[in-house]
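Following up on my earlier thread - several people asked me to post the actual chain instead of describing it. Fair enough. Here it is, all 292 residues.
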Amino acid sequence: MKLLIKFSLVFVLVFGAGFGAAAWMARGFLRQNATDQVLGNAELMMETALAMRTYTQKQIAPQLTRDELRKRIFFPQTVPAYAATESFTYLRAKFPEYSYKEATLNPTNLRDRPLDWEADIIRTFRDDPSDHRIVGHRETPTGTSWFLARPITAAPACLECHSTPSAAPAPMIAVYGRDNGFGWKPNEIVGAQIISVPSSVPLAMADKAFRAMLIYVGSVALLTLIALDLALALIVVRPVSKLSRMADRISQGDTDVPDLPAGGGDEISILAGSFNRMRVSLAKALKLLESE
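Reply from S.P.:
Thanks for posting it. Predicted structure:
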C-alpha cells in the first residue's frame, strides 16, 4: 500500500473517531440549546399574554364597563383572560406549535376548565404560593410536550364578577349563568396560565442544525484531507520516491546518478544528503575495486 494511501486512511480513522465523539456531544448540546430557545419563546409569549391582560384591565375594561353599559351589555373583551386567550389565537397563526390556556378550577367560561394535568399544576401553585413559575414536560399520545406555567391570582378587580352571582353584572349572568365562576376569594390562586409546545419542535430545530454542522464540518474535513495529501505528496512522497528510484538504479550497478536536493534542514533533506554521500562513497569503493 502506498504511503499516501496509508496517510489518508490514518487521517480518516483518527479524524472520524474524533468527529464522531464531537458530533455525539454536539447533538446533545444542540438539543438542549434548542429546548432552551423554545422555552425562551414560550416565556416571551407568556409576557405578551400578561401585557395583554394588563392592557385590557387598565385601558379597555374602564371604557366598556361604565355604569350605563354595564347594566345593559356584557362585553367579554373586558375580561383579561378572554383578551389574552383571543390574542394568542391570532399569534398561533404564526406559531401553530404553541398553545395557550388560562386554566381555571372554577371558570365562568367553560373553555377554561382545566384538564387533569392542568389541575395538578394549579394545585401545585396552591400548595406552594411562593412558586411563581413551573417548567416541565409530560407524555402525550403524540409524544413528549414541554410546558411553562404561571399562577393566576384573584385580584380585587376580579371579585366584582366572581364573588357571588348577586354581585355580578346581570348581562354576564345572562351569558354564562349562575353556576360557574363564583366563590373566588381575595388573592386566592384560582388557575394557571399554561403555554405548551411539543418536544418535536426543539428536536426538529436541533436536528436541522446538526445536519448543517455535519455538512459544513464534513466539507472542511474533505478539503483538509485533499490539502494534506497534496502537501504530503510534495514534501514527503516525491523526495522519498526519488530516493527509491536512485537506490534501485544503484542496486543495479548504475552509480552515475545525479545528487538529490539536500538544501533544507528537515529529515527528508538530511536523508537525501546522507544518501548522496553514500552514493559517492559507493562509487569510490567500486572504482577502487576496479583499479585493483
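The mean pLDDT is 83. That should answer part of your original question.
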